[in-house]
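Before relying on records like the one below, remember that each one covers exactly one chain. Contacts with other chains, cofactors or solvent are not represented anywhere in the record.
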Amino acid sequence: MTKKIVALPGDGIGKEIMDSTLKIMAEIMVQEELDFDIQAFPFGGAGIDQEGDPLPEKTLTACKDADAILLGAIGGPKWDAAPKRPEQGLLALRKALGLFANIRPISVPDAVIHLSPLKEKNVKGVDFIVVRELTGGIYFGEKKRETDQASDLCTYTKAEIQRIIRKAFEIARTRNKKVTSVDKANVLATSKLWRETAEEVAQEFPDCTLEHQLVDSAAMVMIQRPKDFDVLVTENLFGDILSDEASVIPGSLGMMPSASHSESGPSLYEPIHGSAPDIAGQDIANPMSMILSAAMMLRQSFGMEATAKRIERACDKVMAAGVLTKDLGGTAGTLEFTEAVIKELRI
């Protein structure tokens, strides 16, 4: 049965890293005789330029009908003054598809461990996942602005908290069975509800352990003892900040993939970095984050564990052989790195 994949290259380096990833996908499709129908649609700034909206209707329709979605990157100063910014399209897409759970794996390949700003003894062996609630909280709450006063309402329902906590425990069951729930329960009412609900959901997973961390403490532990974490789960704002902090541990955003899941519809896979318009079109962007996002898609949407591991190992071997892009201290271009991965996959 044909699997429908929607590709949203987006803006800036999104187009280049998407091209690289689709070349990898084409190679895998030939080698493993896979039946994927991959079609590209405008989104973000490209959607504004082509259709006058960051999320054109035809793009949204295609995403709803897809089995999975690959997103490159969006945004740039070109659209700063647009009536609807590219980022508004992303928020609208997340809401329309019900993408409530953002999953960000954090690990450090041995080949680039020297790039981490942390000491090697603290970084070697780091392997944890940040699970961020994506469609609730302060980003989606009521907003008010007066001349000298503004407010943003942070709201969570118990049901919203339950489903993201369950997602964290389900992931933990496939790993080391430890969940760290991050909140600010000593101050915030939403966090008090969060912690109470986390305790209740934990009873459904007696084979796992639950611990709580205040968000400021978690931020410190992530730098001092990142190996303490297995699965970290938190609300939208805290998750946005902590996942970006965690992404610094490997030393480059160019290696970091992510996935966003709904309860029943298609999932979206994307790098965690932005569109980097300052380096777009120069063949120096690191495509690995997009390639690894595709590997996450194969694993999590299509159950293709072995294929996902093949791609991940190929990337690791290419880096270990010294083929590194500029962000990793090397000289390889986007195309050179991509071709090296393809060559490794053919061995």
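The chain has twelve helices and twelve strands.
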